[in-house]
Specification:
The complex is a heterodimer of chains A (283) and B (270). Chain A has 283 residues and is α/β, with parallel strands linked by helices. Chain A is 39% helix and 22% strand. Chain A has a single domain, classed as P-loop containing nucleotide triphosphate hydrolases (Rossmann fold), CATH 3.40.50.300. In chain A, the strands form 2 sheets. A 6-stranded mixed sheet of chain A has the order 6-7-8-3-9-10, sandwiched between helices. Chain A has a 4-stranded antiparallel sheet with strand order 2-1-4-5, with helices on one face. In chain A, strand 7, helix 6 and strand 8 form a beta-alpha-beta unit. Chain A is globular and about 65 Å long. With 270 residues, chain B is mostly helical. In chain B, 69% of the residues lie in helices and 3% in strands. Chain B contains 10 helices and 2 strands; from the N terminus they run αααααββααααα. A two-stranded antiparallel sheet of chain B has the order 1-2. Chain B is globular and about 65 Å long. Chain B starts with 15 loop residues before the first helix and ends in a 5-residue tail after the last helix. The chains are: A alpha/beta (283), B mainly alpha (270). At the A-B interface, helix 2, helix 3, helix 4 and helix 5 of A face helix 8 and helix 9 of B. Bound molecules: adenosine-5'-diphosphate (ADP) and magnesium ion (MG). The site of adenosine-5'-diphosphate has 11 residues of chain A, from strand 2 and helix 1.
């Protein structure tokens, strides 16, 4: 499999609108490559540069230094910006602030209308996208009649209608209740498994990160760790140092080990924990 | 609850009137307004009245909706009628000091009042039977020729859509902020007008801050979805004139022509 997204020595600073103000450096020497079909979780505390990193993937921001390639296209190529945005869709935190139209299906059609797709084809792709996220029955509702999780699924439908290779989700569940979170995460996971859509999920929730193929930990604009979930979460102390949590069961296993129980360090889910617990009790 | 305020005055339905192409409806309403100012004959107005009544019945719009629409402009009607009543020249019927009432005055006053009422009732029909979104769409398409003179047709329609989209969201937010401020002891209901206006400031400021943040987020989301203005944009829902539109236009046309003919051939009152 070839790399879909490639960051090479990317640094980025925000330039203030005032002339003499110092630029604010946010990303430092980021190297990252993501393959087609991967499910990558990005972790990092507030202000560590996760959103800034995400905005580089669809050419909303361009690197101050270094290069970002999306499907071998350099994001600094202004002519191809819309090609890149078609390849990489983005879903944001606040479900209310990313829905443009007053009817669900019209909102899902928005990107396709912008791209000049013929009406019949838009209709077909909108219906497909709505079915994929399980919101087809709500196609004629007004957005404000929907729950947070439903709105977020509509936003996802608006992106997958473009048939992107990759979806970047910037804390999509941060404002949702547990039910909404579950709905959204299941939708994301299904897109990744069934359609091999590459998923980049920025999140604060460790139980979400555990479900990814790979976890990237960002701290102060640098990539600190980049590995499979098990390899990342066993480093409990290092994660705590940079202000991150680990899944609750992992923490419990860590405490048990500290207390002298020969517990495996890499349990990430409740099921794994119970298995391990049984093993120890039997031994 | 603030969010109970209905947006626009749309009565959803499936009647013939609802199903007409919104562009056709706008054009017919414009023709109707012109007609109102062409005819001056009471018989024509009776015909127009019957015509409106029939459409309201077909569209199943409740009668109180008509009253609700006309009520706010009653003072205006009263005012123009009084002006017409006293200041139209002619043979005085009654005379008192500098005031006189003439037969002409009475007819003009009545005519103007009837015209304004018909105008309101007729145009309300448009907003009662057409969703705001369909209206926006129709306006965008009807005004398209104005692009030639660089009138920002698409931008205007986009702004209207976004406004419609965010009105419920912002109303809900206002509600929340009001509750939050009340919980902190803000008193919004008592005191002089000035005091109450001042009490609104702690509600408006957070509302504005949040509205700007929303605007920023929305702009970013639109950019991510390849928005680049109206150039090269297609629409999922196309508007098509159907037989229904043609038949309605002809039927309306017959009524309008009849009203004008009656006006031409019947003896003039004014
Ligand atoms: N538009 C901007 N202008 C200036 N500084 C910004 C802007 N956006 C973010 N920053 C700064 O960049 C840093 C990283 O922000 P962000 O990428 O949003 O972090 P995260 O998403 O991980 O919370 C923060 O210190 C923030 O203050
Ligand atoms: Mg962020």
């Amino acid at each position: 499999m070839s790399d879909l997204i490639e960051f090479q020595h990317v640094s980025f600073s925000y330039h203030q609108s005032e002339e003499d103000a110092e630029p604010i450096p946010v990303l430092h020497e980021v190297n990252l490559s993501i393959k087609k079909g991967e499910f990558v979780a990005v972790l990092g505390h507030n202000g560590s540069g996760k959103s800034t990193l995400a905005k580089h993937i669809n050419a909303i921001l361009q690197p101050t230094e270094g290069v970002v390639y999306v499907d071998h296209i350099d994001t600094r190529d202004d002519e191809l910006v819309f090609d890149i945005r078609q390849h990489v869709g983005m879903v944001f935190q606040n479900p209310d602030n990313q829905i443009v139209a007053t009817i669900v299906e019209e909102d899902v059609a928005f990107a396709l209308e912008n791209l000049g797709v013929p009406p019949k084809e838009i209709r077909r792709r909108v219906d497909d996208a709505l079915k994929d996220v399980g919101m087809f029955a709500y196609r004629e509702h007004a957005p404000h009649q929907l729950s947070g999780g439903q709105k977020q699924r509509v936003a996802i439908a608006g992106i997958i209608a473009m048939n992107p290779d990759c979806i970047v989700l910037d804390e999509p569940t941060a404002m949702l209740d547990p039910k909404g979170r579950r709905e959204v995460l299941n939708t994301i996971e299904r897109l990744n498994k069934e359609y091999q859509t590459t998923v980049i999920l920025i999140t604060h929730f460790m139980d979400e990160a555990v479900r990814a193929d790979r976890v990237v930990v960002v701290d102060e604009g640098r990539v600190l760790m980049d590995d499979v979930p098990k390899a990342v979460f066993v480093q409990v102390e290092r994660l705590k140092e940079i202000g991150l949590d680990v899944p609750q069961v992992t923490e419990l296993a860590y405490e048990l080990r500290k207390a002298g129980v020969a517990f495996a360090p890499d349990v990430l889910t409740v099921e794994e924990f119970t298995e391990e617990f049984k093993r120890i009790m039997e031994a | 609850m603030l969010s109970d305020i209905t947006i626009g005055q749309f009565f959803p339905g499936k009647s013939i009137v609802h199903r007409l192409d919104p562009r056709a409806k706008i054009l017919l309403v414009i023709a109707f307004i012109i007609l109102l100012f062409v005819v001056r004959n009471p018989v024509s107005f009776v015909l127009i009245g019957i015509f409106l009544a029939v459409i309201y019945i077909v569209a199943k719009i409740p009668a109180r909706a008509i009253w609700r629409g006309v009520k706010p402009i009653l003072p205006l009607i009263l005012f123009t009628s009084i002006l017409n009543l006293f200041f139209v020249d002619g043979e005085p019927l009654v005379k008192w000091w500098i005031f006189k009432i003439t037969a002409e005055g009475i007819s003009v006053a009545v005519l103007m009042a009837v015209r304004i009422v018909c105008l309101i009732i007729g145009s309300l029909l448009l907003t009662y039977t057409t969703s705001p979104i369909a209206l926006t769409d129709a306006i965008e398409r009807l005004l398209k020729p104005l692009k030639v003179i660089r009138f920002p047709v698409h931008e205007m329609a986009m702004m209207m859509t976004i406004a419609l989209r965010f009105i419920p969201t912002l109303l809900e937010e206002t509600d929340k902020i009001m509750s939050a401020q009340k919980a902190r002891g803000a008193d919004l209901e008592t005191g002089s007008i000035i005091r109450r206006a001042k009490a609104l400031i702690p509600i408006l400021i957070p509302l504005f801050v949040s509205a700007f943040r929303r605007a920023e987020d929305l702009a970013l989301a639109m950019e991510c979805r390849c928005y680049r203005g109206g150039e090269g944009r297609t629409r999922m829902k196309q508007l098509h004139f159907s037989h229904l539109d043609g038949i309605s236009a002809v039927a309306t046309g017959v009524v309008f022509v009849a009203a004008v003919l009656l006006d031409v051939f019947l003896p003039k009152i004014i």
